[in-house]
Amino acid sequence: MTTQRTVLVTGGNRGIGFAIAEEFLAQGHRVAVTARSGSGPDGALTVTADVTDSASLDAAFTAVEAELGPVEVVVANAGITRDTLLMRMSDDDFTDVIDTNLTGAFRTVKRASKGMLKARFGRVILISSVVGLLGSAGQVNYSASKSALVGFARSLTRELGGRGITANVVAPGFIETDMTAALPEDQQSAYRASIPAGRFATPQEVARVVTWLAGADAAYISGAVIPVDGGLGMGH
User: Fold this and answer.
1) Is 191 a catalytic residue?
2) DSSP state of 3
3) Which of 18, 24, 61, 142 is the catalytic position?
4) Residue 179's pLDDT is what?
5) 217: exposed, middle or buried (C-beta count within 10 Å: 0-12, 13-18, 19+)?
6) Is residue 38 part of a domain?
7) Residue range 55-76, pLDDT digits in tens
8) Is 208 inside a domain boundary?
9) Domain containing 165: what range?
10) CATH no. for residue 28?
């Protein structure tokens, strides 16, 4: 029997975040999602929050704690892209991506850690990307923000590992989402050709790795980077 946990997924209104929330719900957990707009799956508590704003995050956590109890599993998934080549990338293109993808994860996890330390239990799961370690032209900002999550999780593991708290990184490759569906067909074919598995992942394939990391079977895993990329980033 799985222990029911209170789970918070940031950016849970679409794509991978939505699928992660759905999978936790299917496994019987109490699930909340943050969204700037829209809502999470049926059965999830949706709270409006912007991960670039500490006060809005604090209010969101307070609302979740009041309704579902202290957050035991936090999935930092909210992210944005501002893709362009380095020479064309503005300071704002860079800092906006870092502020959402990296500093947003910091704000989220810092707030979640209060309850986790009290409970002496916590699961921190950071959603990175294969390009965090593999790199990608036109994504200096995005890949920098995503690779930084690895150092974040490993330092957090050294800080809080003795308190029953784990911190891990999931690094998805190409996933079937609205974002990849919008790419031109020849570009999609080229990407598929570079993936040993020869296909994109479903969002559920990422979600199930996340729920596994949150469960009892992964209690002794911390500071790990788990690729869900069909072999694309091998060795990275």
Assistant:
1) no
2) P
3) 142
4) 73
5) exposed
6) yes
7) 999 999 999 999 999 999 999 9
8) yes
9) 6-225
10) 3.40.50.720
